From TrEMBL:
Organism: Gordoniibacillus kamchatkensis
Lineage: Bacteria, Bacillati, Bacillota, Bacilli, Bacillales
Keywords tagged on the record: Membrane, Transmembrane, Transmembrane helix
Pfam families: DUF347
Domain of life, source organism: Bacteria
Composition-biased stretches (Polar residues): 404-421
The name this protein goes by in its record: Membrane-anchored protein
Length: 518
């Protein structure tokens, strides 16, 4: 009777057998998780938050059907894996881009959460084997573990490939080498199969992401340039084909002749525990060593010790200015090429800029994501593109021109006294700029863009001339106004100025100028 019950449990196991097809689909699902999220975020213009909400809802709906199923169903199981790969990736991306949590922190936190899940799973069920997922509790532990493996793989992969400048190709190669070492250790050194499985499962996330980016990213980035849409379709078709093959052949649902063993001898437990500790120590030492080495390499590449992004962003101002001109000229093809260049240049500069000022980098990165999403959408909306570009240009210009804290605080006691004096405020000092912008607004209302452009030249000249005095009085407010003036100059000087955009920029700047001047 007991033997029959064990056989029944194996029959109803909710997870497929680990075959070569398992790992192929896993990597394909991971790749789709990377490219499909980018497709929704950028191509369809959903944005990171909305994409996360949509994919989260889809994941939990499919997970409900997966848990309700009484046996392994290839279609439902692998659809759940695809969606959890997307959702897990987006969880980390949101923490990094929207919340501003450093990737080092995310990697550490998800490592702890994954370890805690394994610990509670083992204490509750006395096994971490995926061959024994035949109770609801074990399945909950299983999917929670899968979620954390994707979140951890995303954080660790992005940390090394993007922030530390290792690159997706080199990251992918490194992961392949590590997985090969794990396989050899399992094959010839008797590394525990369950331990080897979960290590490989975590590592296939950055491997799949590297593959997805290599296929989908533009050729200017050193990739194949297939795009997220084509890459997602190719891999989804491949996943579907393999799932149909497995559903027909049932190669991944073969029943073993003996029940899965959930109990281990004391000696075996100690042996596996020792292996686990050793492997974790190796990963810890190699991971920390790699992090320190790559960080030092980044530091050595910096010509001088930078404490701010001042003067480091001029190239991005130019690129976005060119994109804005293309959008104003309704030349969307050129705008999209500019977006590719912007993404490439920004990704290339990420390790250096992020190390200098991670907080400001994250803020700018969010605005660039908005620009890419707007410009690359299937049917770009000119007003959305201009809004995203003007917002990004305002922030980038502010960071690029803002003096470092050291420079602004190096004052003599006399200067400090002057800065505390009531007369050192911008009230009453901006009247000329209010008049210049008001005249420009009148010219725009009259469709006299020639005079408006002449006014823009005068505005820029007067503002640059007054910069030393005004910036010393109130650097923070000066930077805010400087950003609005940059938006005006970009709007008025475009090849085909948009009257509504010019009016909006001028009214916004005048509102701030009048408020400060009074």
């Amino acid at each position: 009777m007991e033997a029959n019950q064990n056989n029944l449990k194996i029959l109803l196991n909710k997870v497929p057998e680990v075959t070569i097809f398992f790992w192929i689909i896993k990597v394909l699902c991971t790749t789709v998780g990377e490219t499909f999220a980018d497709f929704l975020n950028f191509n369809l213009g959903f944005g990171l938050t909305l994409t996360t909400i949509i994919m989260g809802i889809a994941f939990f709906i499919v997970l409900y059907f997966q848990i309700r199923a009484t046996k392994y169903v290839p279609g439902i199981y692998w659809l759940t894996v695809v969606l959890i790969s997307v959702f897990g990736t987006l969880v980390t991306d949101n923490l990094t881009d929207n919340v501003g949590i450093p990737l080092e922190t995310s990697t550490a936190v998800f490592s702890v959460l994954l370890g805690a899940t394994f610990l509670f799973w083992y204490l509750s069920e006395k096994t971490l084997s995926i061959h024994s997922i035949y109770t609801r509790k074990r399945e909950v532990f299983y999917w929670l573990t899968i979620l954390f493996t994707f979140a951890l793989g995303t954080a660790a992969g992005d940390l090394f490939s993007e922030q530390l400048g290792l690159g997706y190709l080199h990251t992918g190669i490194t992961v392949v080498i590590i997985i090969a070492c794990i396989f050899l250790a399992w094959k010839f050194l008797k590394l525990d199969g369950i331990l080897a499985f979960w290590i490989a499962y975590v590592l296939t996330r950055p491997l799949g992401a590297s593959l997805g980016d290599y296929l989908s990213q533009p050729q200017i980035n050193g990739a194949l340039g297939l795009g997220t849409t084509v890459t997602s379709v190719i891999f989804l078709i491949a996943i579907l084909a393999i799932i149909v093959f497995l559903a027909v052949t049932k190669l991944d649902a073969a029943i073993k002749s003996e029940p899965a063993k959930t109990n281990q001898t004391t000696g075996r437990k100690k042996y596996v525990l020792t292996q686990t500790v050793v492997v974790l120590c190796i990963f810890f030492v190699v991971g920390i060593g790699g992090y320190v080495g790559l960080s030092n390499n980044l530091a050595s590449q910096t010509d001088s010790p930078q404490t701010s992004l001042v003067g480091q962003l001029s190239n991005f101002v130019k690129i976005e200015g060119d994109i804005l001109n293309s959008v104003n000229s309704n030349d969307i093809a050129s705008a999209k090429k500019g977006a590719d260049d912007l993404e490439h240049q920004w990704d290339t500069a990420e390790p250096k800029l992020r190390k200098i000022d991670g907080k400001t980098w994250t803020q700018i990165d969010g605005t660039i994501d908005d620009v890419l999403a707007a410009v690359r959408s299937a049917n770009p909306d000119a007003s959305k593109c201009k809004s995203a570009l003007n917002n990004s240009l305002s922030i980038i210009n502010g960071a690029n021109k803002l003096e470092s804290q050291t420079a602004t605080t190096q004052t003599t006691s006399v200067e400090k006294t002057q800065s505390d004096s009531p007369k050192n405020k911008l009230a009453g000092k901006l009247t000329d700029f209010v008049k210049i912008e008001s005249d420009m607004l009148h010219h725009v209302d009259s469709n006299d863009f020639t005079s408006a452009k002449q006014g823009a030249d005068n505005l820029e000249h007067q503002w640059d001339t007054s910069e030393p005095e005004l910036r010393k009085i109130d650097s923070k407010t000066w930077t805010q106004i400087d950003g609005t003036i940059d938006v005006i100059l970009a709007a008025v000087r475009s090849k085909k100025p948009d009257a509504s955009k010019c009016k909006s920029a001028l009214n916004n700047s005048l509102s701030i100028l009048n408020g400060v001047n009074k």
